[in-house]
Amino acid sequence: MARGESEAKGAPQAGLVIGAVFGVACLASLLAVVTAHRDTTPTPVARSTPAPFPGAYGLLTSLRWRDCVEGLPPAPLEVSLRARGYVAEGAPRPAPGTEVEGGLDDACGIVLIRGTSRPTPSCGQTAVAVAHCGPGPIALVGADGRRSVAAFALPGFSAGDAPSLPLDERLAHAEAAALLAGAGYEAGDLAVDLRVGGRGEVTLPLPPAPATGCVALVATLAGSFDDVVVEHGGGIRGRSRPAGHGDARQALVGLPHCAGPDGTGALRATNVSTEAGLRVVYRAFTPPTGPGARGATTPLRRVGGELGALVADTPAR
Q1: Most CB within 10 Å of its CB: which of 21, 85, 163, 234?
Q2: Domain range spanning residue 307?
Q3: pTM (2 decimals)?
Q4: How many domains does the chain have?
Q5: Which residues, 6+ apart, have CB-to-CB distance to 12 below 8 Å?
Q6: Domain-embedded: residue 209
Q7: CB 85 within 8 A of CB 155
Q8: Cis before 96 (ω within 30)
Q9: CATH number of the domain encompassing residue 169
Q10: What is the pLDDT of residues 150-164, one digit of tens each?
Q11: What is the pLDDT of residues 216-251, one digit of tens each?
């Protein structure tokens, strides 16, 4: 082969080699630039402190008196009652006079009264929920040709359970037991009945915290007050307005109650306006034992007056 031909063929090959080397060098330079500008700071791993009572905040602070369910506009009372375990006893019926049969036979429950005259609904409702047992009559104020009534029985509730408590409050605690049982909470059979004095903003006494773990405290309040503030973990967790009017207002609230310095919360009633103060009834619930656990709607059998007995009497989990 002639020397000229060899040089002619070698030139392109040398160009290819030089080009490849140059390309590799450029690519390396680009990678170096990208690497130099890349944020090499490790991404912090979010570490959330487990709640001492998982799921309790939302569940307990959502408790409301049956008339005061959340929502705009408020959900019909029939929806609230069915969620709390009540069963309708027949269809609504007219109640034009000043007296109506309760329609609950041998059961206890709620009679819904709809109409334009008293008793007056509260919490934006168009009906009044009256606690009642048996078929006996209910006195109404004023005649109303457009008024109707409907009865809702609470299965498993007995008029003989904790008879020293007013029926309305016993039903409210049974409703709370039904709502919490679906999430695995089990009710104790003891309630503590207190009279709490004071005017203005009143902080309610709580039972001692458990030695270990947590319980859920459910409380009913009765008297003259504006609302109930629930505090836990250093902040306000909920605010519950009462049903009723004047000195006959009622509320149902709940809060986690745990061992440790940060495990207890507070309940405050605002604008208490009678010297008699408030009637407060506490009941303790133990938390679920595991995923999918079903709680028990244990009847409320006993009533005491000592806060210390409430948590000490609660079975350990």
Answers
A1: 85
A2: 158-312
A3: 0.78
A4: 1
A5: none
A6: yes
A7: yes
A8: no
A9: 2.60.120
A10: 999 999 898 888 889
A11: 999 999 999 998 988 876 666 778 888 888 888 999
